Amino acid sequence: MKLFRKILLPMAVVAALTATSQATLITFTFGNNTTGGESQAALDDHASGSVTVGGLMLTAATNTGTFNSTMTAGFGINNTGSDNTTEFDMTDVMIFSFDEAVTLTMINLNVFGASDSGFITYGASTVHFTDDPFVTSISLAANETVMFGNDSGSSFSLQSITVDLPTAQVPDNARPAACLLLGVGFLLGGERFLRRKTA
Description:
The chain is of the alpha+beta class. Helix content is 24%, strand content 43%. The longest helix has 25 residues, at 174-198.
């Protein structure tokens, strides 16, 4: 009984109540990288819109003009004047956010040349990148605004945005064992209580 009170009972409580942190990778696809068409249909020809993938909602808007997405050319912003309508020119900016806290892990681009450079601005920080895909680890709060754009070189299009969505769950293999230990503890405690009453 002492062994149960001092060792097994605390272990059972911890196993029953402790949740382990896991994560789910979610990818929003655009343009010629779109498979289901969800992002393309939600944003194409609109100045703003939202799309939900895997229960996570992305809301996006342009700084000017409208989003333009095609299955063959890619995804960009259709701006006024001289503009590559399916790509991001140096004046085009996409402002987006997620409805849950996430970690931005990768941005995949198209027609991204050796002299091209893009940027991500979030909070008070700006990150410039020259690689495709752009692999990173940026923690974003729910509904935190992010700006994505082209800051040098020729134009390029956006293919996908991948984020890490943290989730928490109690391990399935821990709960039954914990409940069994707690049940045994209650039975032993009850038996000891009855012995005291009848003594």
